[in-house]
Design brief:
The protein is an alpha+beta fold. It is built from 4 helices and 13 strands. Helix content is 21%, strand content 40%. A 6-stranded mixed beta barrel has the order 1-3-2-6-5-4.
Length: 212
């Protein structure tokens, strides 16, 4: 996947008051690290960062971070958010190399129509929503698809049933269940009693109406 260029400012003052000033200016404090360099405190424009991460790759977007005339291929990791406003409060930028294999979390997308489950009024129960994969940075998929067309009530599909592109491997047990076909929910005794009581009340009301 092509990387997106993002400019960074270095030399930011650390500390809570300086950090608040940065955020008030529309900037996000962060740090650049990895591959033997000393951590570099920096800041990026909040709007530019949101735009860069809004593409199909999401959190696995490759970023070409421009720092003092040098370009670093990075991934945004450990994105901290404000507990109330949910705005990005801090970012760690991890330096990666194009030829190294790294681990990333990608969404699991269910595709296809589970005909057998639907005909039996069953429920598709997704158990795994993200998948840990290992690949070179440019090979990390934006998501992985699982075809649930063959799913039946009482059966499960596993990580091994997910079709992965060349160069992508899973970092989890292939027998891990991803989705299951669940039978229709059976009424509990309380629900059955309530339903019966409702029918009896309705019948009594209808009988009284006919007498009048």
């Amino acid at each position: 996947m092509p990387e997106i260029t993002l400019a960074a400012e270095v030399g930011r003052t650390t500390g809570s008051s300086a950090t608040r000033r940065l955020r008030a200016e529309g900037k996000i404090p962060g740090v650049l690290y990895g591959h033997g360099i000393d951590p570099v405190p920096l800041a990026v424009d909040a709007r530019a960062f949101r735009t860069a991460m809004s593409g199909e790759a999401g959190l696995n977007t490759l970023l070409s971070l421009e720092v003092e005339g040098r370009s670093h291929l990075t991934l945004a990791r450990d994105i901290q958010r404000h507990p109330v406003r949910n705005t990005v409060a801090h970012i760690d930028f991890q330096i990666v190399r194009r030829d190294e294999v790294i681990t990333a979390e990608v969404p699991v997308v269910l595709v296809g129509e589970p005909v057998e489950v639907n005909h039996g009024d069953g429920i598709v129960d997704q158990l795994l929503f993200t998948l840990s994969v290992k690949a070179r940075p440019s090979d990390i998929p934006s998501s992985v698809d699982l075809d649930i067309s063959s799913l039946t009530i009482g059966s499960s599909l596993h990580v091994s049933d997910i079709a992965l592109a060349a160069g992508v491997e899973v970092d989890i047990d292939p027998d891990t269940p991803v989705v299951s076909g669940i039978p229709p929910r059976v009424q509990t005794a309380g629900e059955e009693g309530a339903a019966a009581e409702g029918e009896a009340t309705s019948g009594s009301a209808e009988a009284q109406a006919s007498e009048h």
